[in-house]
Specification:
Bound molecules: uridine-5'-diphosphate, magnesium ion
Structural class: alpha/beta
Membrane topology: Multi-pass membrane protein
Number of helices: 10
Distance between the termini: 21 Å
InterPro entries: Glyco_trans_2-like, Glycosyltransferase_2, Nucleotide-diphossugar_trans
Strand content: 15-25%
Protein name: Glycosyltransferase family 2 protein
Pfam family, one: Glycos_transf_2
Order of helices and strands: EHEHEHEHEHEHHEHHHE
GO molecular function: glycosyltransferase activity
Length: 310
């Protein structure tokens, strides 16, 4: 019996990429002995992505689509695809050809060897802008420093998960899953493959610097409460430092020494005002996450699909 491989592809304004990626996957599977299905997830695109997806899925029986009711973001689009996949393993990859489909046979080989997670690490891409490269490296450094997981720089959302792992994921109800971190956290037998990313086939990246920053902040706060501890430590250090200052003040009072210091008082107020706001903000992020999660809203809403109900 040939095994079934599900390919999950999130798409947000990728009208020109749908055919290209689907055709190149078809080509890859024409030379290996697996059945495959493609699940294209339209993440509330504003262009003709959905039409292209529907058009393509009507040409073959193994092409499925999920249409979100609005844009829920890349991570949830991948999650939705995995939730609906039938395969013995699920491969998630981007729509823009940056994740080379030619790598799929290698990933499957490792899977057959018994690895339950085969993830990929992108080699440093010289063609990417300097801003993108340094923001990406900063992203991983901050993440690893501040949280309890250890992500390799360049870890991509191009990965194969065994059905077992996918089933575990189905029970995750986090409303903002950070898949790269979660996959690492899950354990299982994992294997990393390195690859050279291609240039985007068409369109432009949806990850702006602002989004990267949000993702980093989110990655840290959803994996660890280390930032809360650092607030406590910082508080201790500063209180201790201020205690050391008391003898000097007593001395100044006792000896009638005039201490001038308008500038330093203002500086101190501003500095600590800012610091307190930052720490309050960090606590706020955690409280906000708890609030969002307790509402128990569905993580994503599907408007239409051609996937038969399980
Ligand atoms: N994507 C998505 N929803 C979003 C943003 C992106 O489904 O809100 C998809 C996008 O269509 C692509 C993948 O996620 O298939 C990765 O996005 P992109 O190529 O823009 O990111 P980059 O490769 O620049 O990190
Ligand atoms: Mg891309």
């Amino acid at each position: 019996m040939k095994k079934l491989v599900s390919i999950v592809i999130p798409a947000y304004n990728e009208a020109d990429n749908i055919f290209v990626i689907a055709e190149s996957i078809k080509k890859v599977f024409s030379s290996i002995a697996y059945h495959y299905e493609i699940i294209l997830v339209d993440d509330g695109s504003a262009d003709h992505t959905l039409e292209k997806i529907k058009e393509y899925s009507s040409t073959a029986e193994n092409i499925f689509f999920l249409e979100f009711s609005k844009n829920f973001g890349h991570q949830l689009a991948v999650k939705a695809g995995m939730d609906h996949a039938f395969g013995d393993c699920v491969i998630s990859m981007d729509c823009d050809m940056q994740h080379p489909p030619e790598l799929i046979p290698d990933m499957l080989k490792k899977w057959e060897e018994g690895f339950e997670v085969v993830y990929t690490i992108r080699e440093e891409d010289k063609s990417l802008s300097k801003g993108k490269r340094s923001s990406s490296s900063l992203f991983y450094k901050t993440l690893n420093w501040l949280s309890d997981i250890d992500l390799e720089p360049g870890a991509a959302d191009f990965r194969l998960l065994d059905q077992k792992v996918v089933n575990v994921f189905r029970n995750f109800q986090e409303n903002e899953p950070f898949l790269r971190g979660l996959v690492k956290w899950l354990g299982f037998k994992q294997y990393a493959i390195r690859y050279n990313p291609a240039a985007r086939f068409s369109g432009k990246s949806k990850y702006t610097l602002k989004k990267m920053f949000r993702l980093a902040l989110h990655g840290v706060t959803s994996f660890s409460i280390k930032p809360l501890y650092s607030a406590v430590y910082l508080g201790f250090i500063l209180s201790f430092a201020s205690v050391l200052y008391i003898p000097y003040i007593i001395y100044a009072f006792a000896n009638n020494v005039e201490v001038s210091g308008w500038a330093s008082v203002i500086m101190t107020i501003v500095f600590f005002g800012g610091l307190q706001l930052i720490i309050l903000g960090i606590i706020g992020i955690y409280v906000g996450k708890m609030f969002m999660q307790t509402k128990n809203r569905p993580n994503y809403i599907i408007r239409s699909t051609n996937i038969p109900q399980k």
